[in-house]
Amino acid sequence: MDLVKKLFPYRSCTKKITGTDPRPCLEYYINRCVGPCAGLASREEYADVVQHVILFLEGNTELVTGQLRGKMAEAADQLEFERAAALRDQVAAIQKFEEERTVKVDSPRMTDLDVIALAMAANETWVEIFFVRRGKLIGRDHFFMDGPQDDEPGEVIAQFVQQFYATALEVPPTILVQHDPPDDDAPLLQGFLRQRRNGAVRIMRPQRGENRKLMQVVAENAAEGLAQHRVKWLNRSDAIQGALAELEEELSLPALPRRMECYDISHIQGSNLVGSMVVFDSGKPLSRDYRRFKIKAVEGVDDYASMKEMLTRRFKRLVSAWGVIPDLVIIDGGKGHLSAAQEVMLHLGLQHIPLCSLAKENEELFVPHTPESIVLPRDSQALYLMQRIRDEAHRFAISFHRNLRSKGSLKSPIDMVTGIGPKRKRMLLRRFGSLQGIREASIEDIATVPGLTRSLAVRLKQTI
């Protein structure tokens, strides 16, 4: 609407227009109104401005720019060059706006469509919808559903489509969805939409091509919307205080868990095992206290041993490195992960620090010396907070893991040769141009590179 106001100077005041005001307001002088109140624009001229607004919002920008170009030529013929320049700038701004919102689709016939994606968590769902008309993105909207979500994504999509289009002013001929509705619901939805539109409607889940790329954009918006909603929740002091009090009661803690530390292990097929520690203080992330751990003493995939190593390294330096003792230590995992953590705490004489684990599959909490899990209500504020801490630990571990993998993928076979560091590597590449050039060179040629000996040259040839 800000852009529309700049492009088409309609009036934003509510005064009765008589055309007899002595002078217009500031909006006229900054080119945000044509001044009908002071008789500076006739009824017909002002109606023309409003008509352009309507056409623009409907996405019919070609007609708008065509009319503006006609007026620009007319102004130029009448030697009104200042007015012609203003119309030229108006046309250029509309064209730039159109370029930015043009949507690529797989078929030229799919110019009118809606795109629906969602992001789900245990207690909430964010639905994002983009509206494309005449191949242009004319708008977007989102809907937030609070409370436990036990349905599958396809079922949520089906429910949303039925509720949204029951009152929507327009039903497009094509609706792209992130997840297929259940087979039993699909025919009913098709019939319902056909009746609402008085014409055929296709519900499709894009598999490839431009439609798939468009769906990914909408899905990313949904995920970002849900993440931002969580950030807003973390800024609500009343909700956080309620969550902390609930945790104190449910876990039988000696005090309100102000400082909570959560630990997670990340690996892919046993490579680059890493651990993460995130800290929440009074329900909010304390990023300056975050820590990352590269697991060094564990071979293969062993989450329990990795967790032991990480906790041992952290709590051995409890006083020297981190003087603040946590009110609650949270382990991402089930009973096995909790037992591994408990063993470390007992060994270090820190069994007085409260400990629990959160198993993702059923969102169960486990505490030492209690065989049964603690299941918080799905709409519990305490569970909501625990999930956010666990997800943050997981995100932090994954980001570290990706960094290590990307660094590993950039390594050259030359880096594997003991005795050849960055300086000698640069000298080799400068002399032979590439790794292939080094492979094709003889040992004698390699040995002539400054800083390299024949034994290093032999070792290098054997390695690469």
From TrEMBL:
Residues 62-97 form the UVR domain. Transmembrane segments: none annotated. The keyword DNA damage applies. The keyword DNA damage applies. It comes from the Eukaryota. GO terms for molecular function: excinuclease ABC activity. Keywords: DNA damage, SOS response. GO terms for cellular component: excinuclease repair complex. Residues 115-345 form the UvrC family homology region profile domain. Pfam families: HHH_5, UVR, UvrC_RNaseH, UvrC_RNaseH_dom. Coiled coil: none annotated. GO terms for biological process: nucleotide-excision repair. InterPro entries: RuvA_2-like, UVR_dom, UVR_dom_sf, UvrABC_protein_C, UvrC, UvrC_RNase_H_dom, UvrC_RNase_H_dom_sf. PANTHER family: UVRABC SYSTEM PROTEIN C (PTHR30562:SF1), UVRC/OXIDOREDUCTASE (PTHR30562). This is UvrABC system protein C. It comes from Geodia barretti (Barrett's horny sponge).
